[in-house]
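dumping this here before i forget
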Amino acid sequence: MLIDSHCHLDMLDLAKHDGDLESAIIAARAAGVGHILNICVTLENFPRVLEIAKTYEGVSCTVGLHPSEQHCHEPSVDDLIELAQHPKVIGIGESGLDYFHCSGDLTWQQERFRRHIQAAKQINKPLVIHSRESSDDMYRILCDEKVNEIGGVLHCFTDSYEAAQKFVDLGFYIGITGIVTFKKALQVQEVAQKIPLERLLVETDAPYLAPEPYRGKPNEPAYVRYVAEHIAKLRNISYDELALQTTKNFWELFDTQEA
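structure:
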């Protein structure tokens, strides 16, 4: 069994499935995907994110505000805690730092991320972290806030192996997407190959970043199998071993199988 540890079911391009989300979820199950984590990016879309998780067995979700989202409702610590009470909500995020899409004084981004951290610590749920071109500040904030107490995953990791190892040493997991299948993605491939298997998660980030052979097309949870197969080849291990360990990693991080 595989787990797609990060996707956006509420944003999928469902043309291939005649507009039917259930069909996409069935396709994922047929590909060996036993669980899907549906990630929230704004509070405005959280009701839909949660409703999908409540509707389908084997789907859980998070609550949070993506770092590059602006002109949205800015959640307080109390807002996040209240919305995270449903048992289907197993993590806080997507949150973090994005210095690629945003520029200038980004103190507001760091303050937003710290609020997410405070909420996660109060309810003891892990963080789903977005970090783009912000590795140094990300590491500093995680150390400042002692986030190793709750842990989390740096999803869609594209930084260096040395950066990945620093986060692993803090107790975090590393999420790898379909980027790993791209021929020129040597840095991501090195991370996927070298980090401890016990700290690896696989994900699609669907509808974005479809792996080969679907690169450039809409992504979906069923395609996480291509990510897992490619990483297994990079590590010279069997697909079954990779699938078993990444599934175990997911449940150790999120510490629940009730969702």
